[in-house]
Amino acid sequence: MRLEYFQMIDRISLLDPEARLVRADCQVPDESPVFEGHFPGHPLLPGVLMIETMAQIGGWLVLATLRFAAMPFLVQVKEAKMRTFVVPGQKLEAEARLVHDGSGYAVVEASILSQGKKVADTEIRYRVVPFPNETLRATMLETARRIGVPEGFFHAA
Amino acid sequence: MASTFETVAGIIADTSDIERDTITPESHAINDLGIDSLDFLDVAFAIDKSFGIKMPLEQWTAEVNDGKVSSDEYFVIKNLCANIDKLVAAKAA
User: Fold this and answer.
1) Cα A71 to the chain's mean position, in Å?
2) pLDDT 10s digit of each residue in chain A, 157 long?
3) Which residue from A16, A82, A104, A108 has the least number of CB within 10 angstroms?
4) A113: which strand partners?
5) Does domain B4-92 have CATH number 1.10.1200.10?
6) Where do the structural domains in chain B lie, given as residue ranges?
7) Contact B45 A102 (CB under 8 A)
8) Shortest distance, CA A139 to any CA of chain B (angstroms)
9) Residue whose C-alpha is closest to residue B83's, from B29, B16, B20
10) Which of A75, A76, A77, A103 to probe by mutation at the B interface, max B CB count within 10 Å?
11) Domain of A136?
């Protein structure tokens, strides 16, 4: 994870469209400017960045399901729960399941686990719209390759 | 079993914080009930789940935006219910 660049997902470990499931590894960095303010003398991964992590893992699932034909934008976070503190250096696993693939929107249930124990979870909703420009789409494809989204998801089936 | 209208009105009341009694078959979801686009996502998700369908919102919105049909066609509640019934019937066929 590179918190200051909003790069929350390190590596996709499972992407199963039939099961509508995605999992990814996320290594909390030992050091980050974020920890200087959150909190001085007691560094913790901010809850809002846990939510961002869950939004991103669910977003990759939606993108892969749509074969990168449209872009999901976060519009709603329902009943997010941050169950335990997450500290620098902690290894996390982010997971999301597609609950509903609607027309122009999508709903996922997402969670973050540490050593198999849930540390955060929520339901996330996205508005799914055409990519606003080719720059964003190209960047998303480049990032997808970096984090290990299989090539087969990049083009229409 | 509740009618389509009763189910839809209940969903709108629950998801959009609108008094159930103010929702009639003639109500326009946006113009009369003031449901904004984000709340309408909640309504759409609940309808999709409740009826086991996928309302073609993108197609409906495009048709309205292109001036092909009036928004009444899809967003007046009785018309919305009729379209839901058609989708349910098509799924069962």
Assistant:
1) 14
2) 999 999 999 999 999 988 999 999 999 999 999 999 999 999 999 999 999 999 999 999 999 999 999 999 999 999 999 999 999 999 999 999 999 999 999 999 999 999 999 999 999 999 999 999 999 999 999 999 999 999 888 877 5
3) A16
4) A93, A118
5) yes
6) 4-92
7) yes
8) 25
9) B29
10) A103
11) 8-144
